Description:
Layout: H1 2-19, H2 35-42, H3 87-92, E1 96-98, E2 101-103, E3 118-121, E4 131-134, E5 139-145, E6 148-153, E7 155-156, E8 165-174, H4 182-187, E9 212-218, E10 221-230, E11 245-248, H5 249-258, E12 264-267
Amino acid sequence: MNFLRRVFPIAGLVMVVASLSGCNILIPDVAADSPARFVQETSPVFYQPPGVDPRRVRPIPDQPVPQTRELYKTQFHQTFGLPVANPVHAAMYGQLRDEDFTLPSIPVSRVQPQFLRQEVDYQTAERPGTVIVDTKTRFLYLVEGNGKAMRYGVGLGRDGYAWSGRGVIQWKQKWPRWTPPVEMVSRQPEVRPFAAENGGMNPGLQNPLGARAMYIFKDGQDTLYRIHGTPDWQSIGKATSSGCVRMLNQDVIDLYDRVPAKAEIVVM
């Protein structure tokens, strides 16, 4: 029995080897090292349509490289992958806490870009610190010198066209009270509660003078001409029914901080 137990495993192994003797798994494939076979197995397959001789196909001439390109332009004149709003504008016109009030952010995407605050080239004979109001283009410039100026968009009311010339910013006021003139009270009786005899309108987000007001004098006399903020941001760049020179509240605060005392102003 012990002899059979030793013989049977050896006999099984011999039978398995005999059954595999017809396969090549025990024989190395030396043909795989053949360069001709390697080229045949790895050569690319080209598309050759019937009736076309590849030797007669002319190559496409090199196209000139464009110097300026518009990438992925859409029908809305925007570019994929790029911000549609300037992040600097979002910072300049974002929500702002000032004194006891919180100014809401301004939707700058709905304001024409030329009326947003920006430094521009501006040639003038006026000295730095002078404020220039161009009523035709509805821009206000603060002259900086060296051919530069800070430009702001403004809205002009009826009173904004009533005076022109040279003057001085005699007085500046944060969060001013609004007192409508007698002529306005006579035209619009609904503002009578804010007339001078009633003390005017308290400062606030709905006050027509906004967050700041700068009062223009000429030869020591009040011209009744004002540069002021407005909660009505949609009026910037437009002609309005009332008021003088309106600015976005964030802009009028910026101008207020830049304009020196007794600054000269030119309205043209």
